[in-house]
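Data deposition worksheet. Section B asks for the primary sequence of the deposited chain exactly as it was used as input, without tags or linkers unless they were present during the calculation. Section C holds the resulting structure in token form. Section D is free text for depositor observations; keep each observation to a single sentence. Incomplete worksheets are returned to the depositor.
Section A, Depositor: J.P.
Section B:
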Amino acid sequence: MKRNKRLIFIFILFVAGLVLALFSVPNDESEIILAQLAPSTESQMCGYVLSDGKTTIVIDGGTEGDAEELINEVKKLSNDDTVDAWLITHYHEDHTGALAKILSDSESEIKVDDIYSCFPPSDLIQLYDPDCYSEFQVIDAALEKSETSDIPKEGEKIQIGEFTVTVLQIPDLSITTNFGNNSSLIYKIQAGDDSLLFLGDAGIEAGNRLLNGPYRSQIKNIDYVQMAHHGQKGVSEEVYRYISPRNCLWPTPV
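Section C:
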């Protein structure tokens, strides 16, 4: 009889422990992954995929030749082969070629919900960046066929799933030096506890505008910063010193 009571007591302890374990399991938080794409061609390029499994964001995406690798990365990270938001920094082909190709493919393996871009007027591109005007025409034509294209405003906050995107800078048409690169949109993304800053190809002038502009306080102590213009001839050292990043994303081919 005593043995039976002992077994019953042990059984009760076991059940109590199991119930306690079930109720003490922490919520399963999705892992956030940021993938920096490698170039598929000899061209420099800039492309990132950010995803928590439920929501997927692409930043730029690289050249036309990088489209296949980009698609594969989206399919790997997204649970439904969908890009919830595609953020474009500027019109140069090494940042927009892949997107233009995907938008022109009626049988694309991935779906794009929303695209955010803001380009200078075409006549100014022709005047101040004539060598890249044809690159602008390609992405502009692709976006015109898309029903998912949005033009964000400076300072606008965009909620995309659990990610918060803040548009810190849009093209300043008074900056005509290094026109195409300096027209880069600058995005800050809050991803969980981490902040990410994407500078596109911003040059010295656009970097100084950011440093001395109304959103200066929002670029301090960033966790991950994408090096402007592939880490060469981009924003000044002063900008990076102020940002004081914990990590640098350096989209530069070998």
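Section D:
The domain at 28-249 is CATH 3.60.15.10 (Metallo-beta-lactamase; Chain A).
Residues 7-28 have pLDDT under 50 and may be disordered.
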